[in-house]
Every structure is written in C-alpha cells, then in structure tokens.
Amino acid sequence: MSEESLVLSTIEGPIAILTLNRPQALNALSPALIDDLIRHLEACDADDTIRVIIITGAGRAFAAGADIKAMANATPIDMLTSGMIARWARIAAVRKPVIAAVNGYALGGGCELAMMCDIIIASENAQFGQPEINLGIIPGAGGTQRLTRALGPYRAMELILTGATISAQEALAHGLVCRVCPPESLLDEARRIAQTIATKSPLAVQLAKEAVRMAAETTVREGLAIELRNFYLLFASADQKEGMQAFIEKRAPNFSGR
Ligand code: CO8
C-alpha cells in the first residue's frame, strides 16, 4: 500500500477496501484518480478470493465531485474524447457487490459514485447532493436518474435545481442510505455487511446484484425476465445443491463459487 497512491487498497480476506486518497482536494475525482479506482475495481472483480468491495474516502470527504479544476477549460469535444463517460460506465459495470461507506461530503460525481455502488452506508456527518447547478452545469454521471429514483422526483428536482445538500439522516429516511453510524464505526459497519455477503454463494450474489439493478435500469417486464433467467441458471451451480443440502442436513453451507 503506497501512501502516494490516489486510491489505497487494503485486502482483508474476502473484502477489499478501496480508499479515495486525495484528502487535500476532498477526494475530487480527477481523471487520474478515476483511472486508479477503475484499475483497482477491475482487479478486485477478476480476483476470485475477493467477494465484496468497499469504497470510502480519506479525510473529511467521500468525494466532493469531479475535479472542477481539471474540467474548467474543457470543450465539449475534450469531454467527449477524454473517455470520461466510458470510465464512469466501467465503475458501474463491476460484477461484485460494492459498498459505499460515505464518510463526509458525497457531492456531484461523488454522490454519483456512491449511487453506482450497490449499498450505501453513511457516517452521521455525511452530506449528499448534486451541486453542479452552482457551476453552470448539470449532473453527468447518472445523478438526474439515480437520485430521482432514490428520493422521488420532487425532492430530487429541488436538490438538483437549487444545489442544496441533504444529511445522512434524510438520505436514510428516503432509502438512499441503508444505515447511519458514528464516523468511528463506519468502516466496521461496512465490514460487517461485507462479511455477511462474503459468506453467501458468490454466483448467487452476482446474479442477484444483476437482477436488482435491472429494477432501476429497465422495465418490470425485462427485469422479471432477467430475474427468472438468473434464478434458473443458479440451479446449474454446485452452490445451489450445497445450499439446499446444507439446509436439509441442518448445517452451515460451504459455498465453492461453482
Ligand atoms: N474539484 C476540485 N477541487 C475541489 C473540489 C472539486 N470538486 N471540491 C473541493 N476541492 C478542493 C478545494 O478547491 C480546496 O482546494 P485548495 O485548498 O487548493 O483551495 C480543497 O478541496 C478544500 O475545499 P474547500 O476549501 O472548498 O473546503 P470547504 O470545507 O470550505 O468546502 C465543499 C467544502 C462545500 C465541499 C466545497 O469544497 C465545494 O463546494 N466543493 C465543490 C463541490 C461541487 O461543486 N461538486 C460538483 C463538482 S462537478 C461534478 O462532480 C460533475 C460530475 C460530472 C461527471 C460527468 C462524467 C461524464
């Protein structure tokens, strides 16, 4: 683990903890940081020993957005050709479950990054928002869609048009966040959730993630079709046989990932 890295990676058995590490810039998501994050995420996704990924931020922010200084003089063509959109799509394409442990500001691209994760937990001092309107732009990495699904159209519209932020408690009330805890116990809480997921069949976890994602990304009819396909598919796995046999034999299952 190098202290200079823009993303620090700690492996704890089946859990990888990735820490955004530009605290002096509130973890603003520069192209280099995003590239480093993608490199780590894709390495974790390819590593069979890792079951769950946690993303958090060093210092007082999760991430205060895309790097404004890096974008300030960009032309539309720069934005198009920089590969920025493709980069963000690679974050959302990770197959393993990703938990965002939001330790402070999650603004703009930082809020969008959290919403690309599968589970969001927050410390009591976390703040969520899409303040792009204050910069003369709008969210570009999914904020108008994912925040609207999480908060409902009226509260999301208010936040996106005014640039206001919401607290961890309000995010909890809306279901954007599933748990709020004191800052000092945030990572332990994320680890607890990750450990529980890590005991399940990784195949079932991956196919469940895909099916749940469909609920937000497609129609109910298409989502139901994916759910059914994945449900049937799991009956081809050794883990399904093991899970059901273990239940019948009143013992804990031993999932192999096959
Ligand atoms: N980009 C670059 N630098 C930042 C950013 C950022 N988003 N946020 C904070 N910083 C830097 C500050 O410039 C400052 O650096 P320096 O010390 O060199 O001046 C340092 O971090 C500390 O920040 P502050 O002094 O401002 O700290 P405060 O505690 O006073 O304020 C805030 C904290 C309220 C979080 C404030 O920093 C802020 O408003 N930050 C900007 C938030 C924002 O507007 N975010 C949205 C950015 S745009 C975006 O995310 C679009 C995503 C689009 C993706 C599209 C892909 C296709």
Beta-strand portion reads 15-25%
CATH architecture of the largest domain: Alpha-Beta Complex
Helix content: 40-55%
Molecules bound to protein: octanoyl-coenzyme A
CATH topology of the largest domain: 2-enoyl-CoA Hydratase, Chain A, domain 1
Individual helix count: 12
Give me the Rg, rounded.
19 Å
**SSE string:** EEHEEHHHEEHEEHHEHEHHHH
> CATH-wise, what's the superfamily of the largest domain?
2-enoyl-CoA Hydratase, Chain A, domain 1
- From the N-terminal CA to the C-terminal CA, the straight-line distance is 31 Å
Please tell me the overall pLDDT.
96
Q: How is the biggest beta sheet arranged?
A: 6 strands, mixed
What is the CATH class name of the largest domain? Answer: Alpha Beta
Assembly annotation: single chain
Query: Which strand order do you get reading across the main beta sheet?
Result: 1-2-3-5-7-10
Unreliable spans: none
Structural class: alpha/beta
Tally of discrete structural domains:
2
Number of strands: 10
Q: Judging from the principal axes of the Cα atoms, what is the shape?
A: globular
List the SSEs and their pairings.
Blueprint: E1 7-12, E2 15-20, H1 31-46, E3 52-57, E4 61-63, H2 68-71, H3 76-81, H4 84-92, E5 98-102, E6 105-107, H5 109-116, E7 119-123, E8 127-129, H6 143-151, H7 153-162, E9 165-167, H8 168-174, E10 179-181, H9 186-198, H10 202-217, H11 220-234, H12 238-248
Helix pairs in contact: 1-4, 6-7, 10-11
The protein binds octanoyl-coenzyme A.
